[in-house]
Amino acid sequence: MAPVFSHGDLRLYILSLLAEGPRHGYDLMQALTERTGGTYSPSAGTIYPRLAKLEEEGLVTKTVDGRKTVYEITDAGRAEVTAREGDLAGIQAGLADSVRLIADEVRGSVRDAMRSLRADLAAASRDEREQAQKEPADDARTRSREQLHRADAAITEFRGRARAELRSHVARGGELTASGVDAIESALRQASDAVSRALHG
């Protein structure tokens, strides 16, 4: 869910970022993407007109540093940020909610994938036991080796999917919290336990 900057919110948020220190336009776009967990990626056509307006209002100044134009907040800009601290806190809370939603989605995806893997392994184990009852020992061992390759392939595929999803989330600027990793580790332990139960149950 992308955070929605209502009228004036993006302008104020840009000012708050500049209050942290001078930035060039691309740096502001990156900061917005990172602070929103990748749910909002503004274009140059969105950022630069607002910077130009802020400059007209005397809230920021710009200087050319080599090939980059650096924007810096003025005293008037800082005064506006200070005067609207309540509004800014509301914006920050909304963005934090969006980042938490993304983390929840990642944890949910991992849990769903683990449940699917546990079900597949349990079904494979049941099939294996049923087949073993019908076949001589040598045939059963051959069948087990075939199923082992199948299980290995399923685990490798899941590992690749999970790693790709996590890396993509972080690459988009999303937050990966310690509690999120704890939840993933817990889900993996549960999956490991389910594998043992499926094989020995």
What is the total domain count? 2
Strand content: 5-15%
- Provide the spatial order of strands within the biggest beta sheet: 1-3-2
**Largest sheet, strands/sense/barrel:** 3 strands, antiparallel
First-last Cα distance:
42 Å
Low-confidence stretches: none
What oligomeric state is this?
Answer: single chain
The mean pLDDT is: 78
**What structural category arises from helix and sheet content?**
mainly alpha
Q: How large is the count of helical segments?
A: 7
Order of helices and strands: HEHHEEHHHH
Number of strands: 3
Alpha-carbon Rg, integer: 26 Å
In helices, the fraction of residues equals over 70%
Bulk shape:
elongated
Question: What attributes characterize this protein structure?
Answer:
single chain, 201 residues, mainly alpha, Arc Repressor Mutant, subunit A, 2 domains, three-stranded antiparallel sheet, 3 strands, 76% helix, 7% strand
